[in-house]
Amino acid sequence: MILYSSKFLKTNYLELQYLMHFYWSDYAAYMDQEGIYHELLNFLSKRIYKRARQVFVDWQKVEHLVSQQTFDWFLQYILPKIASHQSYRLGFLVSDTHNFDLPERIPVNNTRFEARLFSDPETLMNWLMDGAERKEPGTDEHDHDHGHCHVSDD
Length: 154
Known about the structure:
Layout: E1 2-5, E2 9-14, E3 19-24, H1 33-45, E4 54-58, H2 68-82, E5 89-93, E6 105-108, E7 111-118, H3 121-129
Parallel strand pairs: 3-4, 4-5, 5-7
Antiparallel strand pairs: 1-2, 2-3, 6-7
């Protein structure tokens, strides 16, 4: 399910895996760092009611705009809004994992997410889903208690 889509950013949610996936388009490479913040805040303004246990953030197309400050901002302002209270894992896809510093565990919503940097998307996805709980198809089980899930523009 696509939660957010613009010319620059797409955010998908795979409900059976509780996985939220952020990825940037080719157009995003022409933005500045403020554009990254703007797009992520636009995503949040859509009243996202899905909560993720696994989060995959692909920075590769905008990595030249991403600084340590961008990571810290994402962890402080975006992750708490999308993270489940049943934490699991957060993976960032970057070209060079040595360019950034990321704590192994990140406190979020009174729990902790394991966090890692990867340069290979397949390795990142395997790590995210290793041991992850999955929702049974056709069930109404949720990892939060608002009673329903949807994306709203109002």
